[in-house]
Design goal:
Layout (H helix, E strand, L loop, with lengths): L1 H22 L2 H25 L8 H13 L12 H4 L7 H33 L5 H24 L2 E2 L5 H21 L2 H22 L4 E2 L1 H19 L29 H15 L1 H19 L4 H19 L21 H27 L4 H30 L1
Helix pairs in contact: 2-12, 3-5, 3-7, 5-6, 6-7, 6-8, 7-8, 10-11, 10-13, 11-12, 11-13, 12-13, 12-14, 13-14
Keywords: Membrane, Transmembrane, Transmembrane helix
GO cellular component, one term: membrane
Protein name: Protein ecsB
Length: 406
Amino acid sequence: MNEIWKNRRSSYQKMLLKYLRYVFNDHFVIALLFLFGAFGLSYSNFLKSLSGSENMWWAQPAVILFLLFILHTNQIATFLQEPDKVFLLPQEHQIRGYLKSSWSYSTLVALTVQVACYLLLTPFLLFAAKMSGLNIILLALTQLVLTVNRTESQITALFLPQKRSAKFEAVYSWLLPAVVLIVSVYLPTYIGAIIAILMLVIISEHDRKQLPGAIFDWRYAIDQEAARLARLYRFFNMFTDVRTVTPKPKRRLYLDRFLPQYSTDSEGFFKYLFWRAFVRSGEYSNLYLRLTLLCFIILFFIHNFWGALLIAAVFIYLLGFQLMPIFVVYDEIVFMHTYPINIQKKFIAFSKVLFSLLFVSAMLFFVPIAIQGPGLVKVLSALTLLVAESILIARIYSKTRLSKMS
């Protein structure tokens, strides 16, 4: 079983490297550099604005919510597959050794994520929450112990009989960690650390006594692993095609009234196809909505005008780049090459559709930038730059990019 786990971990890591090459392509890396730079500048300015403020009652609740949220970002990785419930069933007595390796791997990954996020939070703890260095270290210890405790509980949940109701999950996975974090933040921090360690000791002792006679739930464990991989594949699918992700088109009849109707001229014909490919395909419409809403929300928290404008410009570029495959979505249909249509009108129609989508996003991004009140000249400049970028991407950059795709 240990050999099986090592082979599957190796295959999993190769899969990650394969798709991460597409995620961190040249364009996205440049975009990330701008995003991190703008975020770092805004975060620094935000912390400086807090240095002289005393009434920051909201800092402690914000710390608790942040730590509670990142605590639930990790999930146990078992690498189990559908055929295992048949072919590995005779070796069920060795499954605990297999899960021990999974627990070690998943815990290491989870602790790495927690440490990275906590380092990001540390300046806020110093300037806003007004915590001392010792309390920050003790709170970090509490968070790491809660992380180990959560990974341990995920392993325990793979055995029968275990409570898996939503009520039990809400109490055990959310309420108890929230109480420990509240105690750590509002009371002496060492009390929360002691409670977290006691919880881990009690749960570990309970598992040591109960699990040897428990039955491994193959179906539940395989379903949990499949759900974890599905979320990972959906993320990769935002950047490249993933064979295991096949979004199903939806009719969305209620949107037909907003779409152009069928036209006999070539440009109208292609507009009709492109708009319906965008609306009815979950791959493109969901991606567009996610990126647009994400940027729209982020811009409300960035109070630096140039930083906000830079992030809005980067997201418009990302939207245009990710929507360009719509241009070739119908190319493999034989009727596109046999119908008497003017193929020269295809790019004109696509550029208009792409500009419409980028223009809507630009107007949404403009709202939080304008609300900050940077001045009439800056507001008009931001509007002009965002619209001009949308035009350049839809009319000029897309033509160069699509010539390589066709």
